[in-house]
């Protein structure tokens, strides 16, 4: 069976991005770096990383240095992170929002390279699809008013507190 590896297009700061992601996710590592040849016709790119292969929590990714002016990512492609606790949620949210990232609504945040992340507590299914339709409606209304999701506030909304 073929292995599918998501490839993300970056500019020249590809190695900074790789270091950021590998440092953020547990059990992550850079597995390979390929560089533009030193005699590359565009001397501004010569010797820079062309491709960085990495694993983020065991999932392979490939980062591509497309130079300046390449296509920018959109929210049409995003990454979802399931977290157990508010501390985990805050860890990822704060990292993605830092250094030029942008907070979005309902648990969405865009990192400084323009990639969209959904940082979602694993209990969301219980609150939004639980057996109490009125509680689910309250939790949905609470979520719609949030940027960063707050697990305690979602629980309180579901319970009617």
Short overview:
The protein has 2 domains: 1-71, Roll (2,3-Dihydroxybiphenyl 1,2-Dioxygenase, domain 1); 72-161, Roll (2,3-Dihydroxybiphenyl 1,2-Dioxygenase, domain 1). The protein is built from 5 helices and 8 strands; from the N terminus they run E-H-E-E-E-E-H-E-E-E-H-H-H. The chain has helices at 14-24, 86-97, 124-128, 133-144, 151-159, and strands at 7-10, 29-35, 49-56, 59-65, 78-83, 102-103, 108-110, 116-121.
Describe this structure in words.
The protein has 161 residues and is α/β, with parallel strands linked by helices. It has two domains: 1-71, Roll (2,3-Dihydroxybiphenyl 1,2-Dioxygenase, domain 1); 72-161, Roll (2,3-Dihydroxybiphenyl 1,2-Dioxygenase, domain 1), CATH 3.10.180. Helix content is 30%, strand content 27%. The protein is built from five helices and eight strands. It has a four-stranded mixed β-sheet, with helices on one face. Strands 5-8-7-6 form a four-stranded mixed β-sheet, with helices on one face. It is elongated, with a radius of gyration of 19 Å. The mean pLDDT is 93.
